[in-house]
Structure formats: C-alpha cells, structure tokens
Design brief:
Pfam families: YtpI. This is YtpI-like protein. Keywords: Membrane, Transmembrane, Transmembrane helix. Helices cover 91% and strands 0% of the residues. It starts with a helix and ends with a helix. It has three helices and no strands. It is mainly alpha-helical. It has one domain.
Length: 108
C-alpha cells in the first residue's frame, strides 16, 4: 500500500513544481523548480517500475520494471545534480529581485 501512495505523492509534487516553475520570476528560479520536478518524476517512475516488478512478477514486467527503475534513477540523479548547481544562483536571483522590488516601493 505504500508504493501507490509514493507514486501519487510524487506525481502531485511534480505538478506542483511545474506550476511553480511557470510562476517563477527569474530563469534560475525556473531551472531550480525544474530540477525539483525532475526529482519528483524520477521517484514516481522508479517506484512505478518497482511496483510492476513486485505485483506482476512476470519476466516481461520485471524487465520493464528494471528499465523504469533505471530511467527514474537517472532522472533523480540529474535532478539532484541540477538542484545543487542552480540553488546558489536561484538564491542570488531572489535576493536581487527582492532588492529591486523594495527600491520600487515608495516609502510610506
């Protein structure tokens, strides 16, 4: 029962991060959210492959499950790598946007 919950939660997180990516104010923030969504979809795909291997148990299901697990693992690996790469730039970009917005606000 845990595997389907992980699949659903990771797909929900994927959709959430994609919406946040569209709402992002800068390109680095957008790439940062994209990397988070890549991690979420990788977990979903890998868990889906594991679920197919466990529940179906046939040779074909096992082969396809292994392919899904490998592809999901690749998504998670590159998602984490990109997350680490874009995080400092996204923070810097957010600070610059915050400073720029505070300069535009008139003092009351």
């Amino acid at each position: 029962m845990l595997i389907p919950i992980i699949i659903v939660v990771s797909f929900v997180l994927f959709v959430y991060f994609k919406v946040q990516q569209m709402k992002a104010r800068g390109p680095m923030e957008s790439k940062w959210y994209s990397s988070k969504s890549s991690i979420a979809v990788g977990v979903a795909i890998g868990t889906f492959g594991l679920n197919a291997m466990i529940n179906l148990g046939t040779t074909v299901a096992t082969a396809i499950g292994v392919i899904f697990i490998i592809y999901g693992g690749i998504n998670v690996f590159f998602g984490i790598r990109n997350y680490r790469a874009f995080l400092p730039y996204a923070r810097k970009e957010a600070e610059e946007i915050r400073k720029h917005e505070s300069k535009e606000q008139p003092a009351k």
